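User: Reviewer 2 asked us to show a designed sequence for the structure in our supplementary figure. I'm pasting the structure tokens here. Could you produce the per-position amino acids so we can include them in the response letter?
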């Protein structure tokens, strides 16, 4: 019997969506679903939710609910990770301390000072998960949804090269669909090649029924309604000639152009109509609100009479199906080590490129060179991630400081000594999660 292990199953949105998708495949409808979380309350709620999905679909799936990671992983064929190491009361300082120094952050889960300290807290846990996978299910396909995606995957894939690991983000297919809507196309008529690094990838080729759709997209930019939906991303497209995958809010904090002065934030980051235009601490404020409301939200969902059983657009279930389901090959954008895949990004760093999933495992597809203007932007972010991962693995705060010092937004706002002071203050706030560090800056 096929088994799936969900590590950090208390992430309700992801777990419900992924379980629903997995069970729509004939090969998995009788699978064992092992739900693991260290939060007993969240584990209880998600177990009820998954049982509701199984009952609604009349599936033969078996549910295991446990706080024991080894029990969840034992004999698993597929592993999904959606953990968060430290609640909002921990990671809020990733955003609030930089703000004290003038670094205005929108989300802070990917790169920059906030993303780097999230990586430092999370990498040790992810490596422990990999150790358990190596012990209890060494042939499993391990798909990670936890951020900061690139830094976590870089650490895991370099330390556990024999495991089948990739990281997934829905921004690639989500943005492709958004662009299709803007030009009046159906999703199924769109093809593309997308590459870069997580949250900073670009559509190197975007076609509608085989024809270059970028001229249509440039024409669409003239429509104020479309331009105002994603102001930051649309400005980046008009500069770079290739469209980026992640939201305007995220992208506004990955470069030096939009958040270094209050008037720029006001002009570009507060008035967009997309889901996240770029206001300060957007996700932090959402989490603070949901801290007191999440239980009611899940109870309301549990009390709804109907369940949507339609398969969604997340990659995970399709990947599992390609490797050990009905073995239909599937191409997706995944996070893998750069082993000759993108020539002008650091070799060995984590990149996001097309990957073919099949019974043979994962085969990443070579891209070649990124256009120079994209490489100039992405290379800096990739180097910062490399420095941060080196710092995490060596427990060397000086490497962390250097990574933060070269972050485009941070360096646009702060001087060297201010960055050093900020890094030290962030470390002190996180010291309980980061034992054994060489703290000599």
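Assistant: Here is a per-position design you can include in the supplement:
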């Amino acid at each position: 019997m096929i088994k799936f292990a969900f590590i950090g199953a208390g992430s309700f949105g992801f777990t419900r969506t992924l379980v629903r998708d997995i069970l729509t495949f004939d090969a998995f409808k009788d699978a064992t679903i092992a739900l693991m979380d260290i939060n007993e309350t969240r584990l209880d709620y998600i177990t009820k939710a998954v049982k509701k999905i199984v009952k609604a679909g009349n599936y033969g799936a078996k549910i295991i609910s446990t706080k024991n990671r080894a029990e969840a992983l034992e004999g698993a064929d597929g592993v999904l990770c959606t953990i968060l190491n430290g609640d909002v009361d921990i990671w809020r300082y990733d955003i609030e301390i930089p703000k004290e120094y003038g670094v205005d952050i929108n989300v802070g889960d990917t790169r920059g000072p906030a993303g780097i300290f999230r990586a430092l807290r999370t990498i040790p846990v992810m490596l422990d998960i990999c150790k358990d996978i190596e012990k209890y299910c060494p042939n499993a396909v391990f798909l990670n949804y936890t951020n900061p995606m690139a830094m976590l995957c870089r650490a895991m894939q370099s330390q556990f090269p024999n495991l089948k690991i990739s990281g997934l983000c829905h921004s690639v297919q989500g943005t492709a669909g958004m662009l299709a809507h803007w030009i009046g196309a159906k999703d199924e008529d769109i093809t593309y090649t997308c590459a870069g690094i997580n949250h900073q990838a670009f559509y190197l080729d975007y076609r509608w029924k085989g024809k270059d759709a970028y001229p249509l997209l440039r024409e669409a930019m003239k429509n104020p309604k479309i331009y105002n939906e994603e102001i930051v991303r649309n400005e980046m497209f008009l500069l770079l000639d290739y469209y980026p995958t992640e939201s305007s809010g995220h992208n506004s904090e990955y470069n030096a152009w939009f958040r270094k002065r209050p008037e720029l934030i006001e002009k570009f980051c507060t008035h967009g109509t997309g889901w996240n235009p770029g206001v300060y601490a957007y996700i932090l404020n959402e989490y603070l609100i949901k801290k007191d409301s999440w239980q009611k939200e899940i109870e309301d969902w549990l009390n709804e009479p109907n369940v949507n059983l339609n398969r969604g657009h997340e990659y995970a279930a399709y990947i599992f199906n390609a490797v050990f389901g009905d073995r239909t090959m599937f191409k997706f954008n995944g996070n893998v080590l750069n082993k000759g895949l993108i020539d002008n990004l650091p070799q060995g760093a984590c990149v996001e490129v097309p990957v073919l999933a099949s019974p043979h495992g994962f085969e990443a597809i070579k891209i070649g060179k990124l256009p120079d203007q994209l490489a100039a932007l992405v290379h800096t972010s990739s180097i910062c991630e490399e420095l941060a991962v080196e710092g995490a693995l060596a427990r060397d705060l000086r490497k962390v400081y250097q990574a933060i010092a070269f972050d485009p937004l941070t360096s646009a706002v702060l001087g060297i000594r201010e960055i050093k002071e900020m890094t030290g203050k962030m470390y002190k706030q996180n010291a309980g999660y980061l034992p054994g560090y060489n703290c000599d800056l």
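For the response letter, you might also mention the following. The two ends are 52 Å apart (CA to CA). The CA atoms of residues 384 and 406 lie 6 Å apart.
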